[in-house]
Amino acid sequence: MRGSSHLAIGLITGVAVAALVPGIPFSPAGIALAGFSSLAPDLDHPGSRLSKRLGFAQGYVRWAFVVAAAALAAYTHFVLPPGPDRRMGFTAALAFGLIGAAMQGESTRKLALLFTGLSTVVAGLYLGFVWLSMLGCFVCVAPFTSHRSWTHTLWAAGLWTYIGHLANQSLGWHGVALFAGGGYVSHLLADTLTKAGVKWLMPVLDTSFKIPLIRTGSPGGNRLEVLICAGYGLLVLGLVMGRLEF
Q1: What is the number of alpha carbons within 13 Å of residue 108 lying toward its C-beta?
Q2: Residue 214 has what DSSP assignment?
Q3: Do 156 and 40 belong together in one domain?
Q4: Is residue 241 domain-shared with residue 169, that is, in the same domain?
Q5: Are 37 and 97 within one domain?
Q6: Does pTM surpass 0.85?
C-alpha cells in the first residue's frame, strides 16, 4: 500500500484512539504520533516517506566522506612526521575519498538513516530517556533489513508499542503506547490487504497472511486504497458521532 494511504489510515486510527478509548484525552499530538507510527514499518523501503524524511543527511553523506578525507589528508601532511603513521594517514584519507565518490543511491540512504538513528541514541543517553535510545536503534537497524521482513511482524509492533509505553512513563503523556501501537498495527493490517501480504509471525512462521485485494501501484489498487481510507474514515466518524450523542 502507498505511503499516503498508510498515513491517512494511521491518522484516522489516531482519531479513533483519541475519541473512542476511555481515559485518553483528545490530542492532536497523539494523532500525529499515530500517523508517524503508521509509516515506521516502511523504514526498510528505500522509497518510503519516512525514510526520506528521517534521512535528513542523505544529500550530505557523500560530501561528509569527501570532507573527512580532505581534513585527514591535511592533518597528515601538516602534523604527522614522515614515517608509517603518515603513510597510514594518507591511505585512510584516500579510502575515505574513494568511498565518498563511489557512494550513491541506496547506500547513501542507509548511512543517512544510520547517522540519524545514532544521533537519536546519543540524545536518549544524554537525556536519560531509554525510549528515545530504543527508537534510535530501530531507525538504525530497519534500513538494513529486507522489505516487509522483521519491521512487518507482530514482534516489531510489540516493540514499537513498548517504546511508546516507556515514553509514557518518562513524559507523563497518557496514551502514547496506544497511539504508537495503533498506528503501527494499522500499517500491518493495511498491507495484509495487498497481494504480497505480511509475515506477521516471522521467523516463527514464514507464511504471508493476506487478503489479496490490492495490487500496490496499479490504477485499480490506487482507487481501492482511496475507497478503503474513505470507508474507514466514515466508520470512525460514525462511531465518534454516535458516542457524542450519548
Answers
A1: 18
A2: B
A3: yes
A4: yes
A5: no
A6: no
